Amino acid sequence: MRAFELTAPTTLDEALTSGATALAGGTTLVDLMKLDVLTPPRVVDINALPLRGIEVDPAGDLRIGALERMSAVAAHPQVYPVISRALLLSASQQLRNMASIGGNLMQRTRCGYFRDVAMPCNRRDPGSGCPAIEGANRMHAVLGTSDACVATHASDLAVALVALDARIELVSTQGGRSVALADFYRLPGDTPEREHDLRPGELIGEIVVPRLDWAARSTYVKVRDRQSYEFALCSVAVALDVRDGRVADVRIAAGGVGTVPWRLTAVEAALRGGPADEAAFEAAAQVAADGARPLSHNGYKTALLPRTVVRALLEVSRG
């Protein structure tokens, strides 16, 4: 790790005008600094800032401060099951106690080429190439990829929040702005180094999940190589509204398969109005991997994704 200057402001104005890299739980940033993937000359510890709280506002929307820890949010009784489960299936208990919600949404890809400074990587060094396309790519994305990058998005929480149409409230000295989380993340295209829409001088202030009463019937299914402390090969977040045996409404998003959290709108459309049974779930899930571009070692994901969708739908419909 290279030398850096550390400050700990107590006001938003101080933090927002510092021009430094923000540090909350540090569970991603510190790792990448140790590897020399990130070498910020100045780091600002934002933990004293007033960006906390978990509450349901008068409109029924769930509001989560960006500095709340993952473990606290997962345990909160007013948090929808799909969010809680996504958090509990993320990392270890120790890391969940440290990691902030805002930091989780801002975490960088776990692509091995990105994290190895001896290797080229277009996200880390634009124009240097993407060796994952022809190399070890079993864990990589099949949706939303480009000729410049095939790295998967790492956050489980982001998948659940995208499924629920969550938005983030950004704060800056120029005033705040609200952005749908699904629009916040950028597809890699020709500029994979631009991963999100956070502008210089901005911080995530809070996450807002719109009221969705039937999201009490929701779940998050994560398929991985081992049961704990492992990133997803494929994951699916589902909220399901079943009335009189039919799907009145549904929200579905997938992780582990896309360069960003991947909303499965075509599957949702195929399910709405139809029977809430296994045959209908299997038929709708067949379009989940439409547009996929599998690589030499990750073609299995095009079959795994529909199966995970069905598994999640069955779990929540029977629960």
From TrEMBL:
Pfam families: CO_deh_flav_C, FAD_binding_5. It comes from the Bacteria. InterPro entries: CO_DH_flav_C, CO_DH_flav_C_dom_sf, Diverse_Substr_Oxidored, FAD-bd_PCMH, FAD-bd_PCMH-like_sf, FAD-bd_PCMH_sub1, FAD-bd_PCMH_sub2, Mopterin_DH_FAD-bd. This is Xanthine dehydrogenase YagS FAD-binding subunit. It comes from Pseudonocardia oroxyli. Keywords: Oxidoreductase. SMART domains: CO_deh_flav_C. PANTHER family: OXIDOREDUCTASE (PTHR42659:SF1), XANTHINE DEHYDROGENASE SUBUNIT C-RELATED (PTHR42659). Residues 1-214 form the FAD-binding PCMH-type domain. Gene3D superfamilies: 3.30.465.10, CO dehydrogenase flavoprotein, C-terminal domain, Uridine Diphospho-n-acetylenolpyruvylglucosamine Reductase, domain 2. GO terms for molecular function: FAD binding; oxidoreductase activity.
